[in-house]
Design goal:
mainly beta
């Protein structure tokens, strides 16, 4: 059973930065397609960043240039570096994992959430004006 646990969320002012981490147990993060999703109240869950074991990274247009994603093999974590945060970035952020392949954001949008069997509980990010 794959277990994922997010950390690092919290309140931040607009223009600020946060780093989210997702600790994985029972498997190596480098063997899966990993992604960060977010869900704001009343909105659908959306993918914001993904990465695979070959360090192929993909970002949603809304965060490209502001967010970075990387794997830390030593700590077995997936990480999301968020800069220049804005109030519309406020959401619950989730990490997720699935089998390799179709890891780009465009593929995630096409195939939806069904291919993603492993999810963390989420961490809240709240950006104030």
């Amino acid at each position: 059973q794959v277990r994922l646990e997010e950390s690092g969320g919290g309140p931040v002012q607009a223009g600020g930065s946060l780093k989210l981490s997702c600790a994985a147990s029972t498997y190596s993060v480098q063997t899966y397609c990993m992604a960060w999703f977010r869900q704001a109240p009343g909105k659908e869950r959306e993918a914001v960043a993904s990465i695979d074991g070959n360090d192929y990274q993909s970002f949603a247009n809304s965060v490209r240039g502001r967010f970075g994603v990387f794997l830390d093999a030593a700590k077995n974590t997936l990480n999301l570096l968020m800069t220049n945060l804005q109030p519309n970035d406020t959401a619950m952020y989730y990490c997720a994992a699935k089998a390799p392949g179709r890891c780009a954001i465009a593929s995630i949008r096409r195939w939806g959430l069904t291919p993603w069997p492993y999810w963390g509980q989420g961490t809240q990010v709240t950006v104030s004006p």
